[in-house]
C-alpha cells in the first residue's frame, strides 16, 4: 500500500464559530472522537485506537450531516450489525463496524480478526450457526422474518400520542385504573417507539450479514478459479430475481397500463396534481374511473410507504406524504404506454443471461469444483432476494411509520412551546425528547410552566446554526492510514471499500478525464451527463441522459427507466445502485469516489460498465 494517508480523526477540527459544548450535547458521547469529547485531556489509549483504525465516510447511507434525532438509525445499526458479526454468527474474519461522528458526518471502520488461530476457532461456531440459517433460509424468511418484521411495523403504527387533557376522564376513577393513562402512555409510548425501532433494526441484520457473506464466498471462489473474471459476471449470475423492493415501481407500471386499458389515461394525464386527481375521481360517476381510482387507493398501503432517499433522514420526501411523487412517475408511464412503449423490465432477459453465464463457467471447472460451484451459487441465489427486500420493511415502510409518529410527538411539544414547530423535534436526540416529555408531564401534574419552554427554543436555535455551518463543510472520503487488507463482508460488497478503491481515493486529484469505479452493470454508452446531488433535483433527468450522482435509492426505479446509464460516487457490487441498474438493464459504474464533483451537467461522457471506467469526452 501507499504510504499516503488521510488525516487522523484527532487532526480534524470543528469549523470556525461552532460552540463545542452545544455540538457535544447533540450526539451520544461515545459516538464522538476522543479529542472532541475530552479535549486536550483525551485518554491516550482512545486516541491511539482511533488512529489505528481506518475510517471512511458512510455517504452510501448517511450522505448528509447527522441531525441529532436521525442519528438514532446508525447508532442502532452499529450495535445490531456488529453483534451479529462478532457475537451471534461469529463471522470468522470480521468483528464489528465502529462509528465516529466527525464534524457531524458519520465515519465508520471495521475491526478485522487477523489471528489465524482465532479465525479457526470462530469458523467452528460460524459453520454451525450460519449453516443452520443457510439450510433453512426460505423457511426462516417466510415463516419468521417477514411476519415478525411486519408485526413490529404495525405495532409502531398502533402507538398513540395524545396531548394531555385538562382533567383525566372519570373512567380512570370508576374503572379503578390506579394511574394516569394520559401521562403514563405519552412517555411509555415514546420509549416503546424507540425500542420497536431498535427491534426492527435487529431484524434488518438477522439475515443480511449472512446474505453478504454467502455472496462474498461465491465471489472469492470465482476469483480464485478465474482470476480475470469480470466482477459483473459474478454479479449477473445471481441477478434476475423478483424482489418486493421493486414492487412500488411495478405497481405504478400496472396502474399506467390499467389506465390505458380502461380508457381513462387522458383523464388522468389532464390533472396537474395528485390532490386534484383524487378530488375529481373521488366524485366521479364513471365506472371505469371509479375502478381505476379504487386500484390507486388499494396500492397506497404499504407500497407508497416509500422514501425517495435512502431512508435515514427525516427530510427525505416519502411517497405517502407527497402523492405528487408517485403521481408524476405514473404520468410518465402512462405516456409511454400510449406511445406503444413496453414497461417490462429486463428481468426475463437477465434470467436467460444469468443461466448462460453460469453454465459457461461451470463447464470450465473440474468435477470436484463444480460441486462447490453449485453449492455456493445456489446459496448466493437463495439469499439474494433478502439482500434487497429487507430494505422495504425497515428503511421504507418502517421508517415512514416511525417518522410520522415522531411528528405526532413534535406537534404536542410545539403546542406547549417546547419547540417553535413540529419539525424542530429533529434537532433533539431521542433521550432529550424523553426528558422533555417527562418535563411536560411534571408541569401538567403540578400545574406549573414547563422548564423546556424556556430551554429548548434557544438550544435549538444554536443547533440550527451549527448544522448550517456543518452542511457547508466537505468531509474527506476517509480518515487514517489505509489497511493492507479489507476483510469485512459489508465493507467490500456494499460500500465497495477495497485496497484498490482506497488508492483511487488517494490519487483522484490526478484522475483527469478518466474516473475509475466498480463495473456494476454491463454495457458501454455515450451521452450527456446530468448531475443529481439530491432527490429534489431528480426533475432535471430527461430521457436518454446519463445519471451522475453521489448515490441512488431503490425508489429511483422510475428514473432508471429514463436514463442510458448510471454513475455513482459510492457503493460496491451489492449496493442498491448496482443491483437496481442490473435489474433494469442499465450500464452502471459505482464507487467512483467523486464523479459527481468532477463531472458537470451537460458534459458528454462514456460509461463502460464492463471495465468500471467513466471518460469525460469534452
TrEMBL record:
InterPro entries: PEP-util_enz_mobile_dom, PEP_Utilizing_Enz, Phosphohistidine_dom_sf. It holds the Pfam family PEP-utilizers. Residues 542-612 form the PEP-utilising enzyme mobile domain. Signal peptide: none annotated. GO terms for molecular function: transferase activity, transferring phosphorus-containing groups. It comes from Pyrobaculum ferrireducens. This is PEP-utilizing enzyme, mobile region.
Amino acid at each position: 500500500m501507499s504510504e499516503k494517508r488521510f488525516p487522523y480523526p484527532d487532526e480534524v477540527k470543528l469549523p470556525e464559530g461552532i460552540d463545542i459544548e452545544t455540538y457535544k450535547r447533540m450526539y451520544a458521547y461515545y459516538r464522538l472522537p476522543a479529542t472532541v469529547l475530552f479535549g486536550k485531556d483525551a485518554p491516550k489509549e482512545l486516541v491511539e485506537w482511533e488512529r489505528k483504525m481506518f475510517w471512511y465516510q458512510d455517504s452510501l447511507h448517511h450522505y448528509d450531516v447527522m441531525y441529532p434525532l436521525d442519528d438514532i438509525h446508525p447508532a442502532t445499526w452499529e450495535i445490531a450489525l456488529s453483534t451479529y458479526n462478532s457475537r451471534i454468527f461469529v463471522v470468522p474474519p470480521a468483528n464489528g463496524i465502529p462509528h465516529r461522528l466527525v464534524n457531524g458526518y458519520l465515519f465508520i471502520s471495521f475491526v478485522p480478526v487477523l489471528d489465524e488461530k482465532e479465525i479457526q476457532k470462530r469458523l467452528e461456531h460460524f459453520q454451525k450457526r450460519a449453516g443452520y440459517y443457510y439450510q433453512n433460509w426460505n423457511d426462516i424468511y417466510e415463516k419468521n422474518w417477514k411476519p415478525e418484521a411486519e408485526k413490529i411495523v404495525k405495532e409502531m403504527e398502533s402507538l398513540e400520542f395524545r396531548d394531555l387533557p385538562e382533567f383525566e376522564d372519570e373512567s380512570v376513577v370508576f374503572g379503578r385504573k390506579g394511574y394516569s393513562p394520559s401521562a403514563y402512555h405519552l412517555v411509555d409510548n415514546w420509549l416503546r417507539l424507540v425500542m420497536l425501532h431498535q427491534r426492527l433494526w435487529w431484524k434488518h441484520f438477522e439475515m443480511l450479514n449472512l446474505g453478504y457473506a454467502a455472496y462474498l464466498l461465491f465471489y472469492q471462489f470465482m476469483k480464485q478459479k478465474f482470476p480475470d473474471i469480470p466482477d459483473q459476471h459474478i454479479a449477473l449470475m445471481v441477478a434476475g430475481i423478483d424482489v418486493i423492493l421493486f414492487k412500488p415501481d411495478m405497481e405504478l407500471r400496472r396502474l399506467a397500463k390499467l389506465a390505458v386499458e380502461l380508457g381513462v389515461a387522458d383523464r388522468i394525464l389532464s390533472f396537474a396534481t395528485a390532490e386534484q386527481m383524487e378530488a375529481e375521481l373521488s366524485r366521479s360517476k364513471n365506472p371505469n374511473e371509479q375502478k381505476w381510482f379504487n386500484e390507486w387507493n388499494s396500492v397506497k398501503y404499504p407500497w407508497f410507504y416509500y422514501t425517495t432517499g435512502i431512508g435515514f433522514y427525516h427530510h427525505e420526501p416519502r411517497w405517502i406524504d407527497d402523492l405528487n411523487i408517485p403521481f408524476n412517475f405514473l404520468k410518465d408511464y402512462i405516456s409511454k404506454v400510449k406511445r406503444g412503449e413496453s414497461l417490462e423490465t429486463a428481468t426475463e432477459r437477465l434470467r436467460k443471461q444469468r443461466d448462460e453465464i453460469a453454465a459457461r463457467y461451470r463447464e470450465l471447472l473440474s468435477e470436484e469444483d463444480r460441486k462447490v460451484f453449485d453449492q455456493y451459487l445456489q446459496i448466493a441465489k437463495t439469499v439474494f432476494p433478502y439482500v434487497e427486500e429487507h430494505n422495504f420493511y425497515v428503511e421504507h415502510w418502517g421508517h415512514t411509520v416511525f417518522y410520522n409518529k415522531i411528528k405526532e410527538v413534535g406537534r404536542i411539544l410545539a403546542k406547549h412551546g417546547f419547540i417553535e414547530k413540529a419539525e424542530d423535534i429533529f434537532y433533539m436526540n431521542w433521550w432529550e425528547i424523553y426528558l422533555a416529555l417527562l418535563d411536560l408531564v411534571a408541569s401538567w401534574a403540578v400545574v406549573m410552566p414547563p422548564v423546556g419552554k424556556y430551554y429548548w427554543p434557544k438550544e435549538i436555535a444554536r443547533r440550527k446554526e451549527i448544522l448550517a455551518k456543518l452542511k457547508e463543510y466537505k468531509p474527506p472520503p476517509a480518515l487514517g492510514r489505509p489497511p493492507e487488507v479489507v476483510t469485512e463482508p459489508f465493507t467490500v460488497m456494499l460500500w465497495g471499500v477495497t485496497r484498490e478503491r482506497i488508492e483511487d481515493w488517494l490519487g483522484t486529484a490526478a484522475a483527469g478525464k478518466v474516473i475509475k469505479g466498480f463495473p456494476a452493470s454491463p454495457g458501454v454508452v455515450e451521452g450527456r451527463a446530468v448531475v443529481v446531488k439530491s432527490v429534489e433535483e431528480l426533475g432535471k433527468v430527461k430521457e436518454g441522459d446519463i445519471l451522475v450522482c453521489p448515490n441512488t435509492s431503490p425508489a429511483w426505479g422510475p428514473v432508471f427507466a429514463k436514463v442510458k446509464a448510471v454513475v455513482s460516487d459510492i457503493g460496491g457490487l451489492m449496493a442498491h445502485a448496482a443491483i437496481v441498474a442490473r435489474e433494469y438493464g442499465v450500464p452502471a459504474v459505482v464507487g467512483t469516489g467523486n464523479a459527481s464533483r468532477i463531472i458537470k451537467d451537460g458534459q458528454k461522457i462514456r460509461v463502460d460498465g464492463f471495465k468500471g471506467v467513466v471518460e469525460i469526452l469534452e
